[in-house]
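Sequence only, no structure available. Ideas?
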Amino acid sequence: MRVDDWQLTEDVDGFLAGAGDFLHSRPALHTLLLTVTEVLRARGAASNGAQAPVFGSLEHAGDVAAAFFRTPPRRLNLTELTVDQADVLAARLSHLGHRLPGVTAVDDTAVAFADAWGRHTGAVPVLVQRRRLYRLGTFTSPEPAPEGRSRVAGVEDKERLAQWHDDFAVATGEAPAGGTGPSAGYRRFTFWETSDGTPVSMAGVTPMVAGQVRVGPVYTPAELRGRGYAGAVTAEVSRAALAAGAAEVVLFTDLANPTSNALYQRIGYRPVADFASFDFA
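Reply:
I predicted one. Tokens follow.
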């Protein structure tokens, strides 16, 4: 494999023209790439801010075997790579002068790239998070349901959504390097609220891409946890995604949080793969 087998571009439309079929072939594993590129395609690269996003695809004999994206200043996100593929990509990016804050990928790929980046740049990789990707199987509504009802968030909820999104990022260690990027503002959010209309939990969903919807973030303020609100709102947005025609509904959980992992499995979510995030010191 040659270094120039990796094709890099800042043109999301050109990237999707070449790599779109590959991404659609495994929508669950490629959920981050699918949703972020859809947002950038719809909203334009300027939605990422001052720094242009970067995309890459590994092409061999006319076929795409792997891909990546990065929306600066956030981590590099990779599809599955072999050790050799990861090493060649690290060599290419370091030679071009890319400064990476970290990487996110399925476990083996993240480790392989982090090690390769360390060899090529001298950076020290630090494991900061491990997450599990789940896909909804047979939907089961959690019982007993807590008091209250769901409500789709509107423009009047903008300040609360922004605050809770920031609180979620801090609580999960995703700020700033691991932030969700331009897709964060493109999600639709649903609240669980008590009978007096007070929001007590929220869940977001991404746009449907390749027949797939991703749930997240799910957040309940600390003082309101343990009452079933997160399970209720997650079940509601999952049910709504199925009703809207989604073939797959997926979500990520922090493997360090056994409560959320157990909760989502009770709703019907089943493990797909484990992901790791490294920061580069």
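Residues 81 and 139 are 32 Å apart (CA to CA).
Hope that gets you unstuck.
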